[in-house]
C-alpha cells in the first residue's frame, strides 16, 4: 500500500518536474541571449576630462538699442571728422595757391617799400583834393590816382597785376575783355591824335615865334634867337633833372 501511494506521488510529480526543467532551460536561454557582448575597448587608466561647458551670450533689448545708438554715434563722429579734415586740406590748398600767385606777381628786382607807401599817399591825396566835388569825380579820381601812381612808382608790379587781371578776365568774362579792348584801342587812338595835334600846334607856334624873332633881329639887330635857344636848352635840362630826381625818390 505504501508502495502504491509512493508510485502515485511520483507519477504526479513527474509532469511538474518536466515543466520546471523546461522553464529553467528557457530562462537560461533567454539570459544567454540578453547578455552583453564582450567589448574590445579597454577602460582608460586615468579619469576622463569633464566636458567643456560653452556659454552662449544673449543680449537684451536694451543692450541692442544701446549698441545701435553707439554705432550710429561713432559713424556720425567719423563722418564729421573726415569732412572737417577735407575742409582743412582744401583751405590749406587755397592758401598755398594764393601764396604762389602773390609770389609770381611780386617782382624780385623791385622792392615794395617805399613804393607802395607812395602809392597809398597818392591815392589818399586824390580823395582829399576832390572831397568837395561832385560824386562822379570823387568816385573816379582815387582809382585814377592809384593806377597812375602804381605805374609810376611800381611799374613792374603794375605790369604783372595788369597781366593777371587780363588772364582772369579772359577766363571768366570774355565778353568784357572784348569791350575793354575796344575801349582801350579807341582811347589810345584819341590820345595819339590829340598828341599829334598838340605837336603840330607846338611846331606851328615855334615856327611862328622863330619867324617873328628873325624879323625882330633883322629890324633891330638884336640876337633874340640865341636867347630863345638857350632858354629852351635850360628848360630841357631842368625837365630831365626833375625826372631823375623823381625816379630816385
TrEMBL record:
Subcellular localization:
Mitochondrion inner membrane
Which one GO biological process term can you cite for this protein?
cristae formation
Keywords for this entry? Answer: Membrane, Mitochondrion, Mitochondrion inner membrane
Question: Is-annotated flag, keyword Acetylation?
Answer: no
A GO cellular component term found in this entry reads: MICOS complex
Q: Which InterPro entries match?
A: MIC26/MIC27, Mic26_fungi
Q: What is its main location?
A: mitochondrion
Its subunit composition reads: Component of the mitochondrial contact site and cristae organizing system (MICOS) complex.
Q: What does this protein do?
A: Component of the MICOS complex, a large protein complex of the mitochondrial inner membrane that plays crucial roles in the maintenance of crista junctions, inner membrane architecture, and formation of contact sites to the outer membrane.
Classification via PANTHER family: MICOS SUBUNIT MIC26
Stated name of the protein: MICOS complex subunit
Organism placement in taxonomy = Eukaryota, Fungi, Dikarya, Basidiomycota, Ustilaginomycotina
